[in-house]
Amino acid sequence: MEKDNKCRPRSHEIDTAARRKVPTALPDAWEHRESTGRDYGIDMTIEIFKEGCSTGNQLELQIKGTEKLIDDKEDVYDFDMPVKSLRYIENHHYPVLLVICPVNRPTPMFYYVWLQDYIQVVLEKENPEWRLNRSTVRIKVPIQNSMPGNEKHLSYIANHLRRVSDWKRLGAILHEFKQVFWSNDVGDWSKAEIAEAKRLLEKALELDAIFGDPPYAPGQLQKIITIDPAIKAAELLLRGGPFTVEEVRSVGTELTDDALRLMNDETVELDIAEMSIKFVLSHTENRLSSALSTANDNSLKYLVWKQRGEHDF
């Protein structure tokens, strides 16, 4: 008589081995917690720590083990993911990573892709009706997304919710900024109004998820080309003229030939200099509003991914 023994599928054994290996490829300072109920949801939660303190940011992982050899010379690793899992994950609050862990590697490592961003940037372009698929959707996991070695990228992904919140806060700041000069022409700005504009710009710089996170290129770019010059412009206007050519150029303003002819001992004619500096300050709100649109333009992100291989996911 045969014994009615319970047996585990080999795939479950492989996934269990992967869940054991994944934490060992993460920084020791980061905390991890395994989920108790798995099905098509979340296998593990990672909490990001920095200098011994919790950042309040976390990642959620769906972990898949494999015994296959993954060729690091390839650009991507194809994985067919159940549609029901993707539909569940795309509405998830925290960033969710699909993690592929080669369990036979002697040194613990894994590959990953940020699923919500991948859905928005890639799937919506290449397979817009993917939700209608009956079974699976193919996900292309970038081979360059490997751990250990990409800790900064994972921290950047984990900071996503704070980034979204900071963009919302920036929108409110820009609305206030616009109201400061709403009723006055550029030539009629008071020093009190300029000082308030400077205060709002400095308040914007405190939004660390946008302007203080080095991996976030759109934020770093706008800090350099928009906010820093606008604050400098406000400081110059509060100080008052005369203004040197170098000071006018320091806020990103290129002087015209007519303006250069009016220079006197490296000093720009006061009215021209002042209007040039005010022009920089007056266009700050439009520039940052445009940056918000560009930073969230998934069509542009897809183009960059296809042409240059650069991506957030």
Automatic annotation (TrEMBL):
GO terms for biological process: methylation. Transmembrane segments: none annotated. InterPro entries: DNA_methylase_N6_adenine_CS, DUF4365. One of its GO terms (molecular function) is nucleic acid binding. It comes from the Bacteria. PROSITE patterns: N6_MTASE. This is DUF4365 domain-containing protein.
